[in-house]
């Protein structure tokens, strides 16, 4: 399943993270460092699994328990972004 940033979202990198504005809902937020990393990886790869793998390598090394936790957290974050209309999923 592919992911992409919704066309309704205007975003930019700032010194504090990624700032997002959802033009349809008026919601504004700034992602923390980890959320910003996930956002940028999705913007570049368009797939959830490579994002989870990249963060697992960066933060967990070979610790299997930590890898599982990171994968779950990344998928939960992405799911929340989809529910809020910030990311869109497609079957292609």
From TrEMBL:
A Pfam family matched by this chain, by name?
PqqD
Highest rank taxon of the organism: Bacteria
Ranked from the top, the taxonomy reads: Bacteria, Bacillati, Actinomycetota, Actinomycetes, Streptosporangiales
> Which InterPro entries does the protein's record reference?
PQQD (IPR008792), PqqD_sf (IPR041881)
- What species is this protein from? Nonomuraea insulae
Indicate what this protein is called per its UniProt record.
PqqD family protein
């Amino acid at each position: 399943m592919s992911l992409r940033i919704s066309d309704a979202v205007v975003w930019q990198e700032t010194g504090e993270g990624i700032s997002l504005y959802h033009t349809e809902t008026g919601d504004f937020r700034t992602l923390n460092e980890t959320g910003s990393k996930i956002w940028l990886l999705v913007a570049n790869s368009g797939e959830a699994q490579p994002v989870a793998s990249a963060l697992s390598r960066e933060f967990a090394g070979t610790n299997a328990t930590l890898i599982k936790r990171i994968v779950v957290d990344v998928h939960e974050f992405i799911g929340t972004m989809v529910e809020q209309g910030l990311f869109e999923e497609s079957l292609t």
